[in-house]
Amino acid sequence: MKIFQWMYDKALLWAKHRHAERYLAGLSFTESVIFPIPPDVMLAPMALAQRHKAWRFAWVTTLFSVLGGICGYLLGLWLYEPLVLPTVEYLGHQETFAKVEHWFTTYGVWVVFIAGFSPIPYKLFTVGAGLMQMAFFPFVIASFIGRASRFFLVAGLMYWGGEKMQQKLRDIVDWLGWGTVALGGILYLVYR
């Protein structure tokens, strides 16, 4: 079943849309607060479709992701009890959030940098940083460095890979997609 290849082809078409950069900014912002889909899924095809704008797209993704992270920080700081905690309880993620709190006390600002760069859900750490009342400027600096490192790496790979990267991704996107679905299912079962 070639569902991911079809989605990949559509993503490349949408990446050339005149409002694509705005959508990228919106996705980058919301992913840092609540949305589960990382902006890489939009950044990569956009950087492939318009290689001359790859670095601009990386900047847009980084800046709006950090702004969303600041929003998440403020949610954790000011609205944890009335808004965030009921949502965490409703979704049944109390244990996950307890782990995030533990990581903050153990690793401090480094956990924000790691979450900003890695595929770990960054939104948990933005809200957690506010909840733990982490110093604001170190939070912003760690977020910026982590997010910029990740998004410029993605844009760079697409920029330097060019047409060969585009075709190679198209050839393996179904394997990657189904592998990600399987990994997500396994992680769900393990952490459930």
Describe, in plain words, how this protein is organized in 3D.
- There is one protein chain.
- It contains 9 helices and no strands.
- It is mostly helical and 192 residues long.
- Helix 3 crosses helix 9, helix 6 packs across helix 8 and helix 7 runs antiparallel to helix 8.
- The chain starts with a helix and ends with a helix.
Largest sheet: none
Task: Tally the structural domains.
Answer: 1
Task: Bin the strand percentage.
Answer: under 5%
Give, in order, the helices and strands. Answer: HHHHHHHHH
Q: How far apart are the termini?
A: 29 Å
Shape: globular
Structural class: mainly alpha
The overall average pLDDT, rounded, is 83
Q: SSE layout and pairings?
A:
Blueprint: H1 3-14, H2 20-31, H3 40-49, H4 54-78, H5 80-91, H6 94-107, H7 110-117, H8 122-131, H9 136-191
Helix pairs in contact: 1-3, 1-9, 2-4, 3-4, 3-9, 4-5, 4-8, 4-9, 6-8, 7-8, 7-9
Short synopsis of the structure:
This is DedA family protein. The protein contains nine helices and no strands. The protein is mostly helical and 192 residues long.
List its salient traits.
mainly alpha, DedA family protein, globular, about 190 residues, transmembrane
